[in-house]
């Protein structure tokens, strides 16, 4: 036996709201309610139409007989003499045939005949009767009372009188006069019985139809939503790591959109995963190289005896250089990690860009002088912008440092500053060795080097341009490059003067 507490716990675990979130359940409910409402509407419409039609047919049928009876009443002068057996028989037959009641009322509102023998000889006050007598209505007026199950009809008893005109010709005109009224009440029990039978049959048929709709709704909801189940299963397989193949599904417009979006996300994730693996591989290689060099130098010293001080000094200088290189790689990696954060990590202040650039170039001047490279700054106007001073200085420093390192002796590096009403622009131009066209799309990749041997000779880590690009993107700016081999390279950085969404400190 299941206890009450167990049942309560079971229903507590069933969250109706979560069930209704299911697209399959919602689709089933919509189809079922639509079908059920259609059946109910058809049921009501058909029965109401039958009822109206049956009442109209019954009314027309009785009206014809009442008009004939009214003529007979005038013919036999029944309103003055009710002893006519023929008329009485007709009245009784009509009442019995339609399970109703017929009252003959004269123009004094007196009941001269009542087939129920209840109101005979009495005076009846009825608005419809009085109106029929006064207005001389020539047509039968009928009223259906569905609540009590009868049709009431008022039929005027009309006689035609000839009126002679007082002219020479002696002509006469006819005039119709209402002498009385037939007040008839007809039972609609047969109509109600038929309606009851039809309603039962319709209910049985509707039950069958509702069951069919129920099964149809289940099958259709299952069939139409099966593609979504396949997509969900495929996505779960990808999530579980069983496969990384693109999801393929039926050619439904809605599922195609989901599949295309997921496959695009899958490709993006694959690119990021490949990039991460390549990055880890490059980091491992770059960090391992100085350590290997240090290990070789140390083993060389340890394997020798009575090594002169000059050799020790030379080896220690090489070891120190490798340690500095290792330190630079680590610092660049840390800077790059910080650059990967969102723009909310920016320390925005109002900065004089010209002064900032002059400070950076002053630091880079000794490096340029070693190779007799002419380093110049040209500013077309005073520029003040809302930027992160440290990160923008890293951008300018990395671009200028690369321009110096990958330049020729006795060459030149020119930094040009300009601004409009929205952006300021930093151009770093050089007379260096240039960048091949097939490498331009890869220069911002981490650890990518156009000339690996030359990069290692001059101490490059392959992270400078990646750091610069990330810093520019954090400021919602752009960085472009144009280069010609053996002629030089130009980097153009464009950054908004006013920081979007960041507060000036």
Automatic annotation (TrEMBL):
InterPro entries in alphabetical order: BphY/WalK/GraS-like (IPR050351), HATPase_C_sf (IPR036890), HATPase_dom (IPR003594), His_kinase_dom (IPR005467), HisK_dim/P_dom (IPR003661), HisK_dim/P_sf (IPR036097), Sig_transdc_His_kin-like_C (IPR004358)
Top-tier EC class: transferase
The keyword Transmembrane appears for this protein: yes
GO biological process, one term: cellular response to phosphate starvation
Ranges annotated as spanning the membrane: 27-47, 205-225
Subcellular location, record wording: Membrane
Residue ranges constituting the Histidine kinase domain according to the UniProt record: 282-499
CDD domains hit by this protein: HATPase, HisKA
EC number: 2.7.13.3
Catalysed reaction, written as an equation: ATP + protein L-histidine = ADP + protein N-phospho-L-histidine
Principal subcellular localisation of the protein: membrane
Molecular function as annotated in GO: phosphoprotein phosphatase activity; phosphorelay sensor kinase activity
Keywords: Kinase, Membrane, Phosphoprotein, Transferase, Transmembrane, Transmembrane helix, Two-component regulatory system
GO CC, alphabetical: plasma membrane
UniProt protein name: histidine kinase
Organism, as annotated: Butyrivibrio hungatei
């Amino acid at each position: 036996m299941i206890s009450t507490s167990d049942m309560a716990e079971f229903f507590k675990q069933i969250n109706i709201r979560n069930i209704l979130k299911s697209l399959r359940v919602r689709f089933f409910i919509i189809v079922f309610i639509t079908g059920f409402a259609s059946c109910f509407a058809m049921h009501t419409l058909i029965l109401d139409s039958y009822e109206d039609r049956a009442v109209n047919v019954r009314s027309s049928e009785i009206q014809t007989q009442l008009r004939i009876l009214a003529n007979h009443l005038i013919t036999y002068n029944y309103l003055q003499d009710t002893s006519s057996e023929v008329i009485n028989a007709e009245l009784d037959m009509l009442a019995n045939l339609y399970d109703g009641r017929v009252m003959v009322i004269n123009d004094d509102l007196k009941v001269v005949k009542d087939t129920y023998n209840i109101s005979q000889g009495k005076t009846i006050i009825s608005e419809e009767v009085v109106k029929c007598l006064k207005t001389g209505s020539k047509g039968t007026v009928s009223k259906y009372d569905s609540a009590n199950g009868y049709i009431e009809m008022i039929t005027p008893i009309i006689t035609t009188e000839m009126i002679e005109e007082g002219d020479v010709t002696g002509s006469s005109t006819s005039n119709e006069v209402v002498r009385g009224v037939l007040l008839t009440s007809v039972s609609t029990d047969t109509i109600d019985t038929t309606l009851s039978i039809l309603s039962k049959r319709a209910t049985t048929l509707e039950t069958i139809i509702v069951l069919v709709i129920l099964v149809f709704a289940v099958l259709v909801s299952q069939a139409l939503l099966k593609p979504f189940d396949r997509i969900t299963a495929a996505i779960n397989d990808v999530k579980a790591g069983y496969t990384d193949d693109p999801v393929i599904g039926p050619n439904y417009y809605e599922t195609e959109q989901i599949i295309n979006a997921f496959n695009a996300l899958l490709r993006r994730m694959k690119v990021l995963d490949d990039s991460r693996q390549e990055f880890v591989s490059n980091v491992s290689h770059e960090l391992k190289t100085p350590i290997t060099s240090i290990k070789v130098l140390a083993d060389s010293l340890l394997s020798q005896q009575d090594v002169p001080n000059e050799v020790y000094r030379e080896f220690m200088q090489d070891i120190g250089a490798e340690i500095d290189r290792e330190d630079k790689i680590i610092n660049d990696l840390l800077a790059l990690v910080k650059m990967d954060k969102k723009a909310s990590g920016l320390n925005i202040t109002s900065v004089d860009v010209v002064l900032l650039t002059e400070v950076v170039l002053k630091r880079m001047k000794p490096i340029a002088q070693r190779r007799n490279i002419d380093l110049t700054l040209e500013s077309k106007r005073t520029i003040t912008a809302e930027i992160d001073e440290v990160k923008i200085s890293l951008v300018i420093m990395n671009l200028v440092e690369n321009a110096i390192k990958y330049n020729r002796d006795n060459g030149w590096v020119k930094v040009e500053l300009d601004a409009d009403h929205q952006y300021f622009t930093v151009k770093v131009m050089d007379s260096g060795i240039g960048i091949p066209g097939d490498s331009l799309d890869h220069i911002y990749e981490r650890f990518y080097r156009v000339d690996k041997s030359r990069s290692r000779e001059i101490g490059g880590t392959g992270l400078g341009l990646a750091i610069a690009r990330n810093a520019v993107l954090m400021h919602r700016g752009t960085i472009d490059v144009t280069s010609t081999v053996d002629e030089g390279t130009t980097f153009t950085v464009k950054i908004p003067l006013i920081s979007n969404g960041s507060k000036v400190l």
